[in-house]
Amino acid sequence: MSTKILITAGLLVAGLLWAVVSNRRTIAIKLYGPPTVDSVEAYGPLESDLTFDHSVLDRLLSEFVDDAGWVDYESLKDRQGELQTYIETLADAPFDDLGRNEKLALLINGYNAFTLELILEHYPVDSIQDIPTAQRWDDARWKLGGKLLSLSQIEHEQIRPKFKEPRVHFALVCAAIGCPPLRREAYVGSQLEEQLQSQTQYMHQHQTWFQLEPSASAVKLTQLYSWYGNDFEQSAGSVLKFVATCSVPLKREMDSGKNLGIDWLEYDWTLNSLSNRGAR
Protein backbone atom coordinates (compact mmCIF):
# COMPACT_ATOMS: atom_id res chain seq x y z
CA MET A 1 0.00 0.00 0.00
CA SER A 2 2.78 2.42 0.96
CA THR A 3 4.53 1.70 -2.35
CA LYS A 4 1.39 2.61 -4.29
CA ILE A 5 1.04 5.81 -2.29
CA LEU A 6 4.65 6.75 -2.99
CA ILE A 7 4.25 6.06 -6.71
CA THR A 8 1.03 8.08 -6.82
CA ALA A 9 2.66 10.93 -4.92
CA GLY A 10 5.67 10.82 -7.23
CA LEU A 11 3.47 11.02 -10.31
CA LEU A 12 1.54 13.90 -8.78
CA VAL A 13 4.74 15.82 -8.03
CA ALA A 14 6.07 15.13 -11.52
CA GLY A 15 2.82 16.37 -13.00
CA LEU A 16 2.91 19.53 -10.92
CA LEU A 17 6.54 20.19 -11.89
CA TRP A 18 5.70 19.73 -15.57
CA ALA A 19 2.77 22.13 -15.22
CA VAL A 20 5.04 24.72 -13.59
CA VAL A 21 7.72 24.36 -16.29
CA SER A 22 5.12 24.46 -19.07
CA ASN A 23 3.45 27.52 -17.55
CA ARG A 24 6.77 29.31 -17.18
CA ARG A 25 7.58 28.56 -20.79
CA THR A 26 4.23 29.95 -21.91
CA ILE A 27 4.78 33.09 -19.85
CA ALA A 28 8.32 33.51 -21.22
CA ILE A 29 7.08 33.24 -24.81
CA LYS A 30 4.39 35.84 -24.13
CA LEU A 31 6.87 38.20 -22.48
CA TYR A 32 9.90 37.78 -24.71
CA GLY A 33 8.74 35.93 -27.81
CA PRO A 34 6.92 37.17 -30.90
CA PRO A 35 3.50 38.77 -30.40
CA THR A 36 0.36 36.68 -30.64
CA VAL A 37 -1.83 37.84 -33.51
CA ASP A 38 -5.22 36.98 -34.94
CA SER A 39 -4.62 35.91 -38.51
CA VAL A 40 -7.20 36.82 -41.15
CA GLU A 41 -7.19 37.03 -44.92
CA ALA A 42 -7.12 40.81 -45.28
CA TYR A 43 -6.74 40.76 -49.05
CA GLY A 44 -9.45 39.27 -51.18
CA PRO A 45 -8.79 37.56 -54.51
CA LEU A 46 -7.96 40.83 -56.28
CA GLU A 47 -8.21 40.37 -60.01
CA SER A 48 -4.82 41.66 -61.08
CA ASP A 49 -2.39 40.52 -63.73
CA LEU A 50 0.26 42.82 -62.33
CA THR A 51 3.45 41.09 -61.21
CA PHE A 52 6.64 42.32 -59.60
CA ASP A 53 10.05 41.55 -61.07
CA HIS A 54 12.13 39.47 -58.64
CA SER A 55 14.57 38.26 -61.31
CA VAL A 56 17.64 39.94 -59.78
CA LEU A 57 17.05 38.26 -56.42
CA ASP A 58 16.22 35.01 -58.19
CA ARG A 59 19.56 35.06 -60.01
CA LEU A 60 21.55 35.80 -56.84
CA LEU A 61 19.82 33.04 -54.89
CA SER A 62 20.44 30.49 -57.65
CA GLU A 63 24.14 31.38 -57.70
CA PHE A 64 24.94 31.74 -53.99
CA VAL A 65 22.56 29.35 -52.20
CA ASP A 66 22.91 25.57 -52.42
CA ASP A 67 20.17 22.94 -52.50
CA ALA A 68 20.12 22.66 -48.69
CA GLY A 69 19.81 26.40 -48.13
CA TRP A 70 23.43 27.17 -47.17
CA VAL A 71 24.51 30.65 -48.26
CA ASP A 72 27.89 31.54 -49.75
CA TYR A 73 28.08 34.95 -48.06
CA GLU A 74 31.75 35.41 -48.89
CA SER A 75 31.08 35.26 -52.63
CA LEU A 76 27.77 37.09 -52.37
CA LYS A 77 29.61 39.96 -50.69
CA ASP A 78 31.35 40.63 -54.02
CA ARG A 79 27.93 41.03 -55.66
CA GLN A 80 26.34 43.03 -52.85
CA GLY A 81 25.67 45.89 -55.25
CA GLU A 82 23.24 43.72 -57.21
CA LEU A 83 21.37 42.82 -54.04
CA GLN A 84 21.17 46.50 -53.15
CA THR A 85 19.83 47.27 -56.62
CA TYR A 86 17.03 44.76 -56.06
CA ILE A 87 16.32 46.23 -52.62
CA GLU A 88 16.01 49.68 -54.18
CA THR A 89 13.27 48.40 -56.48
CA LEU A 90 11.26 47.27 -53.45
CA ALA A 91 10.98 50.83 -52.13
CA ASP A 92 8.29 51.86 -54.60
CA ALA A 93 6.80 48.47 -55.37
CA PRO A 94 3.08 48.86 -56.26
CA PHE A 95 1.96 46.78 -53.29
CA ASP A 96 -1.69 47.88 -53.26
CA ASP A 97 -2.13 47.00 -56.93
CA LEU A 98 -0.83 43.45 -56.61
CA GLY A 99 -2.95 40.35 -56.14
CA ARG A 100 -2.94 38.44 -52.86
CA ASN A 101 -0.19 35.95 -53.72
CA GLU A 102 1.97 38.61 -55.37
CA LYS A 103 1.69 40.69 -52.19
CA LEU A 104 2.80 37.81 -50.00
CA ALA A 105 5.65 36.85 -52.34
CA LEU A 106 6.85 40.46 -52.27
CA LEU A 107 6.83 40.56 -48.47
CA ILE A 108 8.66 37.24 -48.11
CA ASN A 109 11.29 38.17 -50.68
CA GLY A 110 11.70 41.59 -49.12
CA TYR A 111 12.22 40.11 -45.65
CA ASN A 112 14.78 37.60 -46.92
CA ALA A 113 16.63 40.14 -49.10
CA PHE A 114 16.81 42.65 -46.25
CA THR A 115 18.18 39.94 -43.97
CA LEU A 116 20.86 39.01 -46.50
CA GLU A 117 21.84 42.68 -46.80
CA LEU A 118 21.98 43.00 -43.00
CA ILE A 119 24.36 40.05 -42.76
CA LEU A 120 26.56 41.34 -45.59
CA GLU A 121 26.82 44.74 -43.90
CA HIS A 122 28.30 43.07 -40.81
CA TYR A 123 30.10 40.17 -42.52
CA PRO A 124 32.06 38.27 -41.33
CA VAL A 125 29.78 37.51 -38.41
CA ASP A 126 29.16 34.23 -36.57
CA SER A 127 25.47 34.81 -35.91
CA ILE A 128 22.79 37.36 -36.63
CA GLN A 129 22.53 37.69 -32.86
CA ASP A 130 26.02 39.21 -32.82
CA ILE A 131 24.63 42.24 -34.64
CA PRO A 132 23.60 44.98 -32.17
CA THR A 133 19.95 44.63 -31.19
CA ALA A 134 19.05 48.14 -32.35
CA GLN A 135 20.29 47.32 -35.85
CA ARG A 136 18.72 43.91 -36.14
CA TRP A 137 14.98 43.13 -36.26
CA ASP A 138 13.52 46.36 -34.90
CA ASP A 139 15.33 48.92 -37.06
CA ALA A 140 12.69 50.51 -39.33
CA ARG A 141 15.13 51.20 -42.16
CA TRP A 142 13.79 48.99 -44.93
CA LYS A 143 11.52 50.61 -47.51
CA LEU A 144 8.96 48.35 -49.11
CA GLY A 145 5.93 49.50 -51.06
CA GLY A 146 6.40 53.09 -49.95
CA LYS A 147 6.63 52.24 -46.23
CA LEU A 148 9.65 52.26 -43.93
CA LEU A 149 9.51 49.03 -41.97
CA SER A 150 11.59 46.91 -39.65
CA LEU A 151 11.98 43.18 -40.18
CA SER A 152 9.71 42.65 -37.16
CA GLN A 153 7.05 44.90 -38.66
CA ILE A 154 7.15 43.05 -41.97
CA GLU A 155 6.59 39.75 -40.20
CA HIS A 156 4.28 40.68 -37.33
CA GLU A 157 2.30 43.57 -38.84
CA GLN A 158 2.31 43.07 -42.60
CA ILE A 159 2.30 39.26 -42.93
CA ARG A 160 0.98 37.34 -39.93
CA PRO A 161 -2.18 39.38 -39.19
CA LYS A 162 -3.13 39.83 -42.85
CA PHE A 163 -2.47 36.40 -44.34
CA LYS A 164 -3.89 33.30 -42.70
CA GLU A 165 -0.89 31.35 -43.89
CA PRO A 166 1.22 29.71 -41.16
CA ARG A 167 3.56 28.20 -43.75
CA VAL A 168 5.25 31.60 -44.03
CA HIS A 169 7.20 30.53 -40.95
CA PHE A 170 8.95 28.02 -43.20
CA ALA A 171 9.79 30.70 -45.77
CA LEU A 172 11.00 33.69 -43.72
CA VAL A 173 14.74 33.17 -43.17
CA CYS A 174 16.54 34.80 -40.25
CA ALA A 175 20.02 33.71 -41.42
CA ALA A 176 20.44 31.01 -38.76
CA ILE A 177 20.96 27.26 -39.09
CA GLY A 178 17.82 26.68 -37.03
CA CYS A 179 15.68 28.85 -39.26
CA PRO A 180 14.10 27.59 -42.50
CA PRO A 181 16.47 26.93 -45.41
CA LEU A 182 16.72 29.71 -47.97
CA ARG A 183 15.34 28.66 -51.34
CA ARG A 184 17.50 28.86 -54.45
CA GLU A 185 14.83 30.94 -56.11
CA ALA A 186 12.66 33.94 -55.37
CA TYR A 187 9.02 33.49 -54.41
CA VAL A 188 6.53 34.45 -57.11
CA GLY A 189 2.78 34.76 -56.89
CA SER A 190 2.04 32.25 -59.64
CA GLN A 191 4.05 29.51 -57.89
CA LEU A 192 3.60 30.55 -54.26
CA GLU A 193 1.39 27.63 -53.20
CA GLU A 194 3.85 25.06 -54.58
CA GLN A 195 6.85 26.90 -53.12
CA LEU A 196 5.36 27.17 -49.62
CA GLN A 197 4.31 23.52 -49.67
CA SER A 198 7.77 22.48 -50.85
CA GLN A 199 9.38 24.39 -47.97
CA THR A 200 6.96 22.83 -45.50
CA GLN A 201 7.59 19.28 -46.70
CA TYR A 202 11.36 19.77 -46.72
CA MET A 203 11.46 20.90 -43.11
CA HIS A 204 9.40 17.93 -41.96
CA GLN A 205 11.77 15.50 -43.66
CA HIS A 206 14.95 16.73 -41.98
CA GLN A 207 16.06 16.27 -38.38
CA THR A 208 17.08 19.90 -37.86
CA TRP A 209 13.37 20.73 -37.58
CA PHE A 210 11.48 17.45 -37.12
CA GLN A 211 12.23 14.13 -35.43
CA LEU A 212 9.89 11.22 -34.75
CA GLU A 213 11.19 7.90 -33.48
CA PRO A 214 8.82 4.89 -33.79
CA SER A 215 8.89 4.10 -30.07
CA ALA A 216 9.03 7.68 -28.81
CA SER A 217 6.36 9.18 -26.58
CA ALA A 218 6.95 12.65 -28.01
CA VAL A 219 7.66 14.23 -31.37
CA LYS A 220 10.59 16.64 -31.52
CA LEU A 221 9.78 19.89 -33.29
CA THR A 222 11.48 23.11 -34.27
CA GLN A 223 10.86 25.89 -31.78
CA LEU A 224 9.11 27.80 -34.56
CA TYR A 225 6.07 25.79 -33.49
CA SER A 226 6.53 26.98 -29.93
CA TRP A 227 7.00 30.65 -30.78
CA TYR A 228 4.21 30.78 -33.35
CA GLY A 229 1.96 28.06 -31.97
CA ASN A 230 -1.12 30.26 -32.10
CA ASP A 231 -0.74 30.71 -35.86
CA PHE A 232 -0.77 26.95 -36.41
CA GLU A 233 -3.62 26.45 -33.95
CA GLN A 234 -5.75 28.99 -35.83
CA SER A 235 -5.11 27.07 -39.03
CA ALA A 236 -5.48 23.45 -37.92
CA GLY A 237 -6.83 23.42 -34.35
CA SER A 238 -3.54 22.43 -32.72
CA VAL A 239 0.17 22.30 -33.45
CA LEU A 240 0.19 18.51 -33.73
CA LYS A 241 -2.79 18.50 -36.07
CA PHE A 242 -0.94 20.89 -38.35
CA VAL A 243 2.28 18.86 -38.21
CA ALA A 244 0.29 15.72 -39.04
CA THR A 245 -0.65 17.31 -42.37
CA CYS A 246 3.09 17.53 -43.13
CA SER A 247 4.21 14.12 -41.89
CA VAL A 248 2.65 10.80 -42.90
CA PRO A 249 4.37 8.90 -40.03
CA LEU A 250 3.01 11.36 -37.45
CA LYS A 251 -0.49 11.23 -38.92
CA ARG A 252 -0.36 7.44 -38.77
CA GLU A 253 0.64 7.56 -35.09
CA MET A 254 -2.12 10.03 -34.24
CA ASP A 255 -4.75 8.13 -36.23
CA SER A 256 -3.86 5.01 -34.22
CA GLY A 257 -4.83 6.85 -31.04
CA LYS A 258 -1.31 7.33 -29.71
CA ASN A 259 -1.08 10.31 -27.37
CA LEU A 260 2.16 12.09 -28.26
CA GLY A 261 3.79 14.94 -26.42
CA ILE A 262 6.09 17.59 -27.87
CA ASP A 263 9.78 18.13 -27.17
CA TRP A 264 11.44 21.24 -28.56
CA LEU A 265 14.61 20.93 -30.59
CA GLU A 266 17.45 23.28 -29.77
CA TYR A 267 17.41 26.30 -32.06
CA ASP A 268 20.83 26.87 -33.59
CA TRP A 269 21.54 30.57 -34.12
CA THR A 270 24.84 29.94 -35.92
CA LEU A 271 24.99 31.69 -39.30
CA ASN A 272 23.54 29.63 -42.17
CA SER A 273 26.79 30.09 -44.05
CA LEU A 274 28.25 27.65 -46.55
CA SER A 275 31.33 27.54 -44.30
CA ASN A 276 29.12 26.09 -41.52
CA ARG A 277 27.46 23.52 -43.76
CA GLY A 278 26.49 20.29 -42.07
CA ALA A 279 23.80 17.64 -42.12
CA ARG A 280 20.27 18.95 -42.14
Automatic annotation (TrEMBL):
One of its GO terms (biological process) is cell redox homeostasis. Residues 96-201 form the DUF547 domain. GO terms for molecular function: electron transfer activity. InterPro entries: DUF547, Grx-like_ET. It comes from the Bacteria. Pfam families: DUF547. This is DUF547 domain-containing protein. It comes from Aureliella helgolandensis.
